[in-house]
Each structure stands twice: as C-alpha cells, then as structure tokens.
Amino acid sequence: MDNMTAKVSCFARAYHYKNNTTWIFKDQYAPTILGDSEYDAISANMAEGIRFFAPDFAGNKEEALAYIVDHQLSPSVLGRSAFNENHLWSEYHGGTKQFVLFAAGYDTFAFRNTCEDIRIFELDLPGMLEERLAHEEAGGLLSPTNRCMISCDLSDKGWEQLLVNNGFSSEQKAFGSLLGISYYLSKESFEKMIGDIARIFATGSAICFDYPALEGSEETARNEELAKAANEEMKAKYHYEELEKLLQKYGFAIEEHLDSGEMTKRYFAEYNNKAKKQMAAPKGVGYIFAVKR
User: Fold this and answer.
1) Distance, CA of 141 to CA of 138 (rounded, Å)
2) Any residues with CB less than 8 A from the CB of 125 and at least 6 apart, and which?
3) How many CB atoms sit inside 10 A of residue 214's CB?
4) Range(s) of the domain holding residue 131
5) Has residue 259 been placed in a domain?
C-alpha cells in the first residue's frame, strides 16, 4: 500500500526536526517511524520536481529540497499539528483522558506522549496500520501500552462500535483529531463523520481539524495536484459559515478558528524570529477547534 500523503506529511515533520533547532512543531520520532529509505526517496523525488513548484528556481538539490519543504510541504502540516496538540494538552489539563486520532497515518503522538493516563486510539485503514507497524518495528519502536490501534474504514458503518469495543467510553470526555481528513471526503461523507462522532462523544468533548477554504492559493492548488497524482484526490472546499452551521447541527460550538494570518502569528512567530528563512501558514486553509455542548 502506498499511503503517499501520510508519508509526505511524516517527511515534512521529519525534515523540519532534523534541519532546525527551533521548531514550529517538534516531532523527534518522525525520522524514525518514516525510516531512512523512505526519507531519502522522498527527498530525491521532491528535489527532482523543483520545476513543478518553482519553474524559475536556481540552486542545487539541497536548496531545492529546502525550498519545497519550507514553501509547500511543511507549513500546513506543522501548523495544524501544533494547533491540534496545543488544544489537546489544554483539554487534558481540563480532565480529558481519551485521545482519538482519526486517519492516524504516521502520527507519533503515542511515542512523544509521557502521560500514561491518556488512552490513545488510532483509527485507520488496515493496510495503513500494517505498514505503519512494520515501520515502527524496523525503527525499533515498541508500542506504548496506552495505545490502541483500530483497523477500520471511517466511511463505513461500524467504526464507532469498534472504538467502544476497544475500551472507548462514551460517558467520558474525549478529544478527536481529524487532521487532513476534510480534504479527501465528500461534503456528505464529512458531515456523516461529524454526526457519528457526535453520537459517541460525551458532552464537553472536543475536535480539531483543518479544512480547505474556497479562496485557495498557489500552495493549496499544488497540493491538490500532488494528491491527485497520488490517487488521493481532494473532494471538497468550505466556507467558514458552512462549517459553523454543520457543526452546530450536531451540537458542536466553534471555540477557535484561525486563518493563515492568525496561524502564522501564533504558531510560527518563534521560529521566524530565530530562523534564517521565514515560513508562513498557507493561504486557503482554515483551522477549527470545536466543543460538544
């Protein structure tokens, strides 16, 4: 199974960690879980494709790779990860001990987390989880005891019951991470997913997700082309008001919404103050934190 989008997201986190000392989002396990061969292969493919990203670029392969990562791959991945985990820890300190990663991909929170009282549920397709476990074993990573991996298709019925059967409590608050999902589901499927989550998440639970806005940018347009080339075509774009109405329908109230400008100010400022090269969150992407009331 290819899972190229998940791999490229992990690569973006790995490259950022390996090539900086100040981080927008620090993921020290990303290089390990991705593996050297995948890291090198993606590095080479990206550098060779510099003309797709910047037709007039002049520089060597290392400079080409840095340009692509900093301008195309990393900003959205790093920003949404920082946004998500900032709210996760806020909810944790407020008493939430269940963390559900929808379409977990190559997420490494289970290894970076040091709080044993957090119960981590990772949901993804069987092939994705099998591939990921192989990468973990190859990297010498041992699965944390407070993590539960659940093979399922989030577009089908039954994943809710699988979650409950594996120890998830609908009577306790939970935090749901839906990063990168809204792009690849139809609007009908994404609404169904929000409705399914609302039915099993207790009052006071929260969700975080990013979404493609109708007013896109060059970066988001290129991401669409890359996703299509990887057979993972993006299917929907949203107005903020449209998502606000959808979430309200299922009992969720938006507590925070950031556009690219606010995301850059809040999560990129420290990095930009210390790094030689500046980075900004991509235009045309929004970030939402919502709580079930």
Assistant:
1) 8
2) 1, 151, 152, 153
3) 10
4) 75-225+234-292
5) yes
Residue 36 lies in a domain: no
Paired sense of beta strands 119-124 and 285-292, if any:
unpaired
Assigned domain for 7 exists: no
Domain of residue 131, CATH code:
3.40.50.150
**Domain total of the chain:** 1
Helix, strand or coil for residue 108?
coil
Q: Is residue 58 part of a domain?
A: no
Which residues lie below 8 Å from residue 192, measured CB to CB, with a gap of 6+? none
Residue 213 φ/ψ region, left for φ over 0, alpha for ψ in the -120 to 50 degree band, beta for the rest: beta
DSSP 224-287: HHHHHHTT------B-HHHHHHHHHHTTEEEEEEE-HHHHHHHHSHHHHHHSSS---PPTTEEE
Q: Are strands 206-212 and 174-177 parallel, antiparallel or unpaired?
A: parallel
Instruction: Show pLDDT as tens, one digit a residue, over the chain (293 residues).
Output: 478 899 999 999 999 999 999 999 999 999 999 999 999 999 999 999 998 888 999 999 999 999 999 999 999 999 999 999 999 999 999 999 999 999 999 999 999 999 999 999 999 999 999 999 999 999 999 999 999 999 999 888 889 999 999 999 999 999 999 999 999 899 999 999 999 999 999 999 999 999 999 775 565 556 556 545 555 667 789 999 999 999 999 999 999 999 999 999 999 999 999 988 899 999 999 999 999 99
Nearest to residue 211, comparing CAs of 174, 258, 271?
Answer: 258
What's the CA gap between 26 and 14, in Å, rounded?
Answer: 9
